[in-house]
């Protein structure tokens, strides 16, 4: 017999917006840089959410790369938009405009989404957002994330990043969910961190 041990990492998702049911048995955490999208992964994540609408929760962990000068500001803008219930919409617009992100583009996106600009700009300066981003980066480094698009399913690193790989891990997690203790702190859907 071969025994294969799998490391289960603790991933702090408290205070982060998510897609899917709050108490879903499976949590997918993606460490990413909002200023450097990978369209194929975004489409794949949507397929997974569509296939498992009641079983999967998706959380985006901020992991801005140092060589992307606007990455932290973009992450703050999306998190600040969350206070107005528009995190994912803002996130998507940032991805669509990642090649030309700047202060003006942030304001344009906010206008397009009918956000209160004064409130958004005030929220972007909130030190709690900076702390949240720092926490995400630190959490990622502690569990071995070295670049963007590291994906974890209930704390286990996803190696096979295609639909079949997701399905296999999700089905395994669903089969063992009753035996596993809760690993994630609850977070509010589209709530302010």
Quote the distance from N terminus to C terminus: 47 Å
Biggest sheet descriptor:
5 strands, mixed
Number of helices: 7
Shape label: globular
Percentage of residues in DSSP E strands: 5-15%
Work out the number of β strands. 5
The string of secondary-structure elements, in order, is EEHEHHHHHEEH
| Mean pLDDT reading | 88
Structural class: alpha+beta
What percentage of residues falls in helices of 4 or more residues?
40-55%
Computed CA radius of gyration, to the nearest angstrom: 17 Å
Note the quaternary state here.
single chain
- Sequence of strands across the biggest β-sheet: 1-3-2-4-5
Spans where pLDDT lies below 50 across 5 or more residues: 179-193
Structure description:
This protein has a five-stranded mixed β-sheet with strand order 1-3-2-4-5, sandwiched between helices. It is α+β, with helices and mostly antiparallel strands and 193 residues long. It has seven helices and five strands; from the N terminus they run ββαβαααααββα. It is 43% helix and 11% strand. It starts with 17 loop residues before the first strand and ends in a 17-residue tail after the last helix. Helix 2 runs antiparallel to helix 3 and helix 2 crosses helix 5.
